[in-house]
Please model this.
Amino acid sequence: VRSAATGFSETHVDRTRVVFRSLEDAEIERYLQQERPYDCAGAFKAESLGISLFRSIQSEDPTGLVGLPLIRTAAMLRRAGFTLP
Model:
């Protein structure tokens, strides 16, 4: 988050660790046929059937798994002077 008006600048790299469970080829093929997740990072849709592929997820901000880590981004925006919500 960067503001030219105030000079505020803050960066963050969010790390999310996903552990997949052991999957059989048939399970993977069924998933790919049903979800067609080819345009998704990691080729899975965690917000849909892709969650069934995981054994665990470790993250400070689980929204980062499907895109922008919104918890962290909201905190940075508040520190930059934005009023949320």
